[in-house]
Write a structure and sequence with these properties.
globular; Butyryl-CoA Dehydrogenase, subunit A, domain 2; Butyryl-CoA Dehydrogenase, subunit A, domain 3; single chain; binds flavin-adenine dinucleotide; 4-stranded antiparallel beta sheet; 13 helices
Length: 399
Amino acid sequence: MDFSLAPAVVDMCQRIRSFVDSHLLPLESEPSTYDEYESIRKELLDELRAKARAQGIWALAMPVELGGGGFNTVGMAACYEEMNRALFGPAVFNAAAPDDGNMFVLNRLATDQQKQKWLQPIIDGTVGSSIVMTEPQPGAGSDPAGMMQTTAEKVGDKWVIHGRKWFITGAAAASHFILLARTSTEPRRELTTFLFHKDQPGWRIVRRIGIMGPEEHGGHCELVFEGLEIPDEDRLLDVGRGMKVVQTRLGTARLTHCMRWLGMAKRAMEIASAYVDEREAFGIKLSERESVQLLQGDVAMAIHMGRLMVMNAAWKLDQGDYAQAEVSAAKIHVADTLHLAVDTAIQLCGARGYSKDTVLEWMYRYARQAKLVDGASEVHKMILARGFQKQGIDFWSWG
Ligand SMILES: Cc1cc2nc3c(=O)[nH]c(=O)nc-3n(C[C@H](O)[C@H](O)[C@H](O)COP(=O)(O)OP(=O)(O)OC[C@H]3O[C@@H](n4cnc5c(N)ncnc54)[C@H](O)[C@@H]3O)c2cc1C
């Protein structure tokens, strides 16, 4: 078992660290960095994206011939973790959700013609994208295939869409949309995936949903479809293969969340360590106190476990495996680790940790979504239990 990274990955990690140190971390304490939704101001983001792209730190998971970095999942794991030491690192390097997962699925499953039309502009950073799956009650959520209400009906050589979606990240700023809709009631063939552009008539944003944490550009929106027409050539994969798209996208996308969250968890501990290394109470530095070290040790161990789980799942994905159990386990553990790290960091920083003088409170509100997005922790536990019930003790085999 060899955990060493390829020289190109090590080199890229160092370049990301240096970019983050010099261009991104200093911005976080500047109030003028943020927009009204606590994201990075768009003009500033565009400026930094141009700089990152010029340095070749850009869309690392995409093929080199399309303008990306050509990294495999293991390489991404190391690099994405470095990126999210900064709050806006993934957005600056074109590696943030949902664009990152959308690029991945289009690159994997779209035809060459579809890639040119729908993928290339996302890689180039000229448009944003959204994945449109979740629906309000009684529609699709944890159980997309079973519950989906949005329908696509074939009329001539077009598909006509009716339905309602919500929590669609980035929708108010996106141009390219990947939509899941019901085309059949046949088990395992219920869903089909379509691509549409924001300027096509027949759909609208009903509202931008207020959330507890900071928002990505374009927010989290509720959409209604009132007869959107999509040409058949903008269908992704065959009719009835929607769950294949979901599985392909979500496997890697869930893991990239974990990669980024580990970077954020590390940063939280970095902030706390700087404080306890300096701050004294009852005659000694806080960092010399064993009870403080126990808190730091617990988080250090959780982050280490998360990194091993992510790397193992990444390696399996690179072998062509779906790595369903590995990704589910990593998603549960790293979501918990992000909470633990940020909560512990706030505790160690005392009142300052609760203030807006550090980014810890931003992270704390952001972190709550980790146990929900791309499958609630309970659903991932169900997936693990199903795997174990089916395979018995072989569930833990190395092969
Ligand atoms: C910040 C944010 C961004 C998002 N972005 C997008 C997006 O861009 N596109 C998109 O399509 N969706 C998006 N979502 C939606 C997200 O994927 C769903 O919230 C998630 O899949 C859960 O679905 P649900 O909210 O309908 O929860 P429900 O299905 O209603 O479940 C509610 C709760 O019930 C429990 N539960 C459900 N099933 C089980 C089970 N089998 N066993 C045990 N307990 C269970 C869990 O605790 C779960 O949290 C986003 C959500 C958030 C919070």
